[in-house]
Write a structure and sequence with these properties.
alpha+beta, two-stranded antiparallel sheet, 31% helix, TIM Barrel, 4 helices
Length: 119
């Protein structure tokens, strides 16, 4: 018997994900509300759904609140961190709690500190 493989898109943004470097333009990675992103992912066959908005879990919290914390949803985010020389890098962090998000935001500006926390 072949084991069932779960389908999940691990890089999904909602309208909570904006471009920090072009804030004056009010541009976003996505213009779709979190609940609609969730529903579209499910309609496209995803077994599990998460959002990876930039440095925020607000969209995840909105899904939890508005959809009564669905069993097939987990919180994640795309964390921007900085390497020496102020070069930036984005790291997907999956299956986190609100407390972990708060701790990640405290250390994310230094790559070494972020990686130490995540390990």
């Amino acid at each position: 018997m072949t084991p069932h493989k779960l389908r999940a898109d691990l890089h999904l943004h909602s309208d909570h994900s904006g471009f920090k470097h072009l804030q004056f333009l009010k541009m976003r990675d996505c213009y779709t509300p979190p609940v609609e992103v969730y529903k579209r992912a499910k309609a496209r066959g995803m077994d599990l759904v998460t959002l990876t908005d930039h440095d925020t879990i607000d969209g995840c919290l909105e899904i939890r609140e508005r959809l009564d914390d669905p069993d097939d949803f987990f919180m994640s985010e795309e964390v921007e961190t900085f390497l020496p020389g102020r070069r930036s890098m984005h790291i997907g962090v999956f299956g986190i709690t609100e407390e972990q998000h708060r701790e990640i935001q405290k250390v994310r500006f230094d790559y070494e500190d972020l990686v130490s926390y995540l390990e």
